[in-house]
Automatic annotation (TrEMBL), chains A, B:
SUPFAM superfamilies: Actin-like ATPase domain. Belongs to the ROK (NagC/XylR) family. Pfam families: ROK. This is ROK family protein. It comes from Pedococcus bigeumensis.
Length: 310, 310
């Protein structure tokens, strides 16, 4: 149990916690989604053994960082995690990054905080936040595509984020080239091994023996270096194929590109728009743009989930 | 205006009308989805010019075919059509088969019948009927895949049929092989040009100069004829790829195969299940089976839509 929040002229807030493979990003968020405090801390190695304790420590640090003039009354906690999530029962079914199976996250967090908690999926929650507070406002059919070390996906269809019993959105493992390189998932030629930041770095290194970040490769592509341009163009083609497939199957009309790779901005988006436009025939052309909330989408999504439930 | 239905000990019914490229399938359906009468008539060539009159004629014939002992009181009409449909406003936005653009189907039908009408999409309505009355009962994540001259698709995700503003479900035009044969849609290697009944017939004919139906080719494949087996296997591989892609992206756990090709039954489903099982790695394996309502799915779906609206 945390000590009770001070009473008096207080603002009700929720703690919104995004537990990632390397960092925990957290915020105190009031009902109008103003962020009163936020922190980023390393994810403890044993997070699976004590997620309640880790979240409680994060929340305590958040509360302590509220400026003295502002009194915040904590009323609940939203936690979002990667992997396979049972949102209804608050269970982390499986995360390869975080190393848990069937972890009752909600029960542990509620027991540590003594407050209601909800558990969601990081990318789906991020899309929910983008649709309420970010770049997807007013859209009802959206693909949210964070491109980083891996590639994730989430779909907003007919105005609702699709869960698929927790299984929806594995865009990174849609097979783009059945004869492509093997993917750790067991398939070959998944989008993730062709177009993630990690893939771009690996492919460039395998041909140049030079270890560069995806950001540097983007800069060299922009400057016209031939190998960088060709590696970048290959990733763009794979992303274009995946987007057109998703548009054809689901009718999304907005594609929000997020994650580290989206920081390349127009170096990525311009050729991607051209590639997609060249593939579409009868389909409704989607707008392709950067996501709006950056790496705070997940924690703001956690705030949406817990406020919705209170 | 139709003459009013006889009063007295009457059953309230709706007219459920599935307007296809070649046939209009229609039924009178009561509130418990008992079919009191049904008809199949050729689609008039000028249907786009007078859809209200065509539907009214169909409904009149249905009412006249009700056995004398049963008095049916018509209370509304559901119409489902192919192509791009604005379900909210009851507009047929575009149908290449039926040759219309921006046709106000609901207004025309309501004006002819003097009763409330709703307009839906044939395949999405068929999936709705399968989920309420057919083979998808109890499932919340379903791909419905009618395989006929063309290939259509509809998705039930988190318990709701996905509309995508009318654009969702163009599974037949997901590109399976970018270097494959051209598709009338303008892309190459669409599922429809690799695995529809029409494609199977065309591919077989191009290699044998023998004109056979897909059904006959299935029988020859089952009997071990080498060309038929190879053509059939190619179609199965394309379908398997499309199913795995859909499972990965959306999390569907039930695939219902409908349309003419599904009449091949296990000759299609057995190798298709094997192909899909061989592709999946981490994904949740879907059940793959025949749809339950056959060619009545669309009209029963039209009945669901109009009963829901009344």
């Amino acid at each position: 149990m945390l000590p009770p929040s001070p009473s008096g002229a207080t603002t009700e807030v929720v703690a919104a916690v995004d537990v990632g493979g390397t960092r925990i990003k957290a915020a105190l968020v009031d009902r109008s989604y103003t962020v009163l405090a936020q922190t980023t801390t390393p994810t403890p190695a044993d997070i699976g053994a004590d997620i309640g304790g880790a979240v409680a420590a994060t929340v305590k640090a958040l509360l302590e960082s509220v400026p003295p003039g502002q009194a915040a009354q904590l009323v609940g906690c939203g936690v979002v995690v990667p992997g396979l999530v049972d949102e209804e029962d608050g269970i982390g079914i499986y995360s390869s990054n975080l190393g848990w199976r069937d972890l009752d996250i909600r029960a542990q967090v509620e027991s540590f905080l003594g407050l209601p908690a909800v558990v969601g999926h990081d990318v789906r929650a991020g899309l929910l936040a983008e649709s309420r507070l970010g770049a997807a406002g007013g859209h009802r059919q959206v693909l949210f595509m964070p491109l980083g070390t891996g590639i994730a996906g989430a779909l907003l269809l007919d105005g609702s984020v699709v869960s698929g019993d927790g299984w929806a959105g594995e865009l990174g493992h849609v097979v783009i080239d059945p004869s492509g390189p093997p993917c750790p998932c067991g398939q070959r030629g998944c989008l993730e091994v062709l177009a993630s930041a990690g893939a771009i770095e690996r492919i460039y290194r395998s041909q140049s023996h030079e270890r560069l970040s995806a950001e540097d490769i983007a800069a060299r592509a922009e400057a016209g270096e031939s190998l960088a341009s060709s590696v970048w163009a290959g990733a763009v083609r794979a992303l274009g194929q995946a987007i057109v497939m998703t548009v054809t199957l689901t009718g999304v009309d907005l594609v929000l590109v997020g994650g580290g790779l989206s920081q390349s901005g127009e170096v990525l988006l311009r050729p991607l728009r051209d590639d997609v436009a060249g593939r579409l025939t009868f389909q409704r052309p989607p707008t392709i743009q950067r996501a709006g909330l950056g790496d705070r989408a997940g924690s703001l999504g956690a705030a949406c989930l817990i406020w919705d439930s209170l």
